[in-house]
Amino acid sequence: MDPEIPTLSLMDMGIVTDIELAPDNKVTVTMTPTFVGCPAIDVMRADVETAIRKIGFDDVVVNVNFDTPWNTNRLTERGKAALLKHGLAPPEKYEYELELDVLEFTKCPQCGSKNTELKSPFGPTLCRSLHYCHDCLQAFEGFKPV
Amino acid sequence: MDTNALKNYLLRTADDQLIIAHRHSEWTGFGPLLEEDIAFSSIAQDKLGHAQALYNIAHEHCALPNADTLAFRRNEKDFLCCQFVELPNGEYDFSLIRHFLFDAAEYFRFSALSESTFEPLAKLAVKIRGEIKYHLYHGRTWVVQLGANGTDESRVRMQTALNYAWPFALGMFEQMATDSLLETSEVIVSEEILKKQWLEFVKGVFDEAGLKIPENSTPVFGGRGGFHTEYLQPLLSEMTEVIDIDPSAEW
Question: Does the domain at residues B3-245 carry the CATH identifier 3.40.630.30?
Answer without folding.
Answer: no
